[in-house]
Amino acid sequence: MIKKKNELWEWTKALLIAVALAAVIRYFLFAPIVVDGLSMMPTLQHQDRMIVNKLSYNIGEPKRFDIIVFHAPEQKDYIKRVIGLPGDRIEYKDDTLYINGKAYEEPYLDEYKKKVEGPLTDPFTLEETPVGTETVPEGELFVMGDNRRFSKDSRHIGTIALDKIIGKTSIVYWPLKDAHILK
User: Which residues form the Peptidase S26 domain (predicted)?
Assistant: First the structure.
């Protein structure tokens, strides 16, 4: 009788530890997220399932072209690409990204540019967006979706405060046939 009671207690403890460990991992380290919409095509597809690394920005600052998940003003979580860092001047002209006056290639858009007529990204400067300033404000990021014609991003909602970032995402795990690590 005592042996059964001890065995039951040991199983209960193991289960409680497993649940606590899963909760810590889920809420503080990594979380699953589902891509909702077409704003990151062709890089990400609607209903792709990904892992968000919540530790990524506790270690260091976001890097240009990282794909991040953040709390958007509409009480939703968005997935977008970091284009502008604090202090950057951002401009698009002739379907080319200019950061601080230097042209940047965006190879992740090449496939999509071949499929559309006209420019994928309409020309703009930061001053012509809700940001309304010449540079990205300190403590904030300018983000855009890869599907530039159909993305609600910093051109519409303004810059994103660093404290609104949930984490960086780079692993698509579902559907299994499309599982990969983003570059």
Answer: 8-174
From the number of C-beta atoms within 10 Å of its C-beta (0-12, 13-18, 19+), residue 98 rates as middle
Burial track 118-146 (b if 16+ CB lie within 10 A, e otherwise): eebbeeeebeebebeeebbbeebbbbbbb
The model's pLDDT over 140-175, given as tens digits with 9 standing for 90+, comes to 999 999 988 888 899 999 999 988 888 888 878 888
List C-alpha distances in Å: 174 to 148, 166, 178, 180: 24, 20, 7, 9
State the pLDDT at residue 177. Answer: 78
Confidence of residue 110 (pLDDT cuts 50, 70, 90): confident
How high is the pLDDT of residue 1? 63
Domains in the chain (CATH in brackets) are 31-181 (2.10.109.10)
Structure tokens at 50: 């990904």
